[in-house]
Design goal:
This protein is of the alpha+beta class. The chain has 8 helices and 9 strands. The chain has a 3-stranded mixed sheet.
């Protein structure tokens, strides 16, 4: 059906466009009284170090090194982004979770962490009506809380169930990890740590402290990086590779 066949449709489209422009212009929204949040795009990188497409940040997870019952990566993520006390059990907010998968043919069981897969072609970005879900040129997928309207289309589109909706008002949040009631959130691949040059994530650090070394962060584009070398030597698997999303998180041992 064309626009001309629907009375008033053109005016509705103009009004909708105007609303979206208005929402996009809100650059100083405060999720908590007294705390002004930067936009994610601003907080995500130092002004003198612009994001470059010469790198693509990713994670390699060796499930053969994941200990059954270990949740060090989950606990570290909660602490790093102040999800403690808000994530469970009162809400479903969780940026990383552990799953147990069983091969029906062999009966083999593996434990693995699941988070945003930071796809090259993210479905969450495709369906977002305001542009709040976006992918940086270095591969990190984020949500701009200032223009997220809480429609949750991205949650429905994500095949990994990696996003959560914030139902309650948030207090004592981190300035580098802004959160707000009525918005959607997910793993940021610790973008604040990436941009200050830590070259790791909270989950990878915690896994190393436990002595497991199951999570490796690095540049997927650099053939000399440790993550690229391991993938080249042992191979790696994408979860739902059939969707052709080219995920930034790869797994070994599944």
């Amino acid at each position: 059906m064309t626009t001309e066949n629907v009375p008033g449709r053109a005016n509705d489209d103009l009004a909708d466009t105007a609303r979206r422009r208005f929402v996009s212009s809100l650059a100083a929204v405060t999720a908590v009284p007294g705390l002004i949040l930067q936009t994610v795009a601003e907080a995500a990188r130092p002004a003198d170090q612009p994001v470059t497409d010469k790198v693509r940040w990713g994670l390699l997870i060796d499930t053969t090194k994941c200990n059954d019952g270990c949740d060090a990566c989950v606990t570290a993520c909660d602490k790093e982004h102040n999800l403690e006390g808000f994530g469970r059990p009162t809400t479903d907010a969780q940026w990383i979770r552990t799953l147990t998968a069983k091969d029906k043919r062999t009966g083999r069981v593996v434990t693995l962490p699941m988070m945003c897969q930071h796809c090259e072609h993210p479905p969450c970005v495709d369906v977002c009506p305001t542009g709040a879900s976006f992918r940086r040129v270095d591969g990190i997928v984020l949500v701009d809380k200032h223009i997220c309207i809480g429609c949750r289309y991205c949650m429905m589109a994500c095949p990994y169930k990696a996003r959560s909706f914030i139902h309650e008002a948030i207090q004592d949040q981190k300035t580098y990890a802004p959160r707000g009631k009525g918005t959607v959130e997910s793993c940021t691949m610790c973008v604040h740590k990436v941009d200050r040059g830590d070259n790791t994530t909270a989950c990878a650090e915690a896994c190393d402290r436990e002595g497991h070394q199951a999570i490796l962060f690095g540049d997927l584009y650099d053939p000399d990086s440790e993550i690229s070398r391991r993938i080249r030597e042992r191979g790696a698997t994408q979860i739902r590779a059939d969707l052709r999303l080219n995920t930034g998180v790869r797994y070994q041992g599944i």
